[in-house]
Amino acid sequence: MKRELQEWRWKDGVVDSHGKHIELRHGDAGKSTYENWHPIARIGRPKKQVFPVEWLIAADSPEHESMIIEARQELDFYLVEKGEPDPWAYAKYHCNTRANIYSRVHWSYFPNGIQGERHASMVTRLSSEEVALVFEDTKEPDKRGQKK
Fold it and tell me: Do 46 and 8 touch, CB atoms closer than 8 A?
């Protein structure tokens, strides 16, 4: 008798913000920081291949509609459709990827709850002085004054 594998899925539920969880926020990483992004949802650790998702915004609000659509698409992709053997591990990994910054839905992992440290990718903004220091051309000129 062939055993059927249960598929991964997510459903609306309650997530303990003081325990391990992933938070989703919506915003433009090129224009603002994490603190200014809109909190959308929390994802809890899965039980029997089901992720609880607690929405932090009203699903029936027209102003939140596009945020909810984008968040649902990412939940479907990363937790279900991607087909990872351990989607929770992959979701935690995704929190620190470049793809996480380029999206408008940003994932952050809180291994010790909301009061603990946040694991997430971020944009590094350099001052003009830092740019000059880091990217300054340090090649030595040759005898004719040309850079090598």
Answer: yes
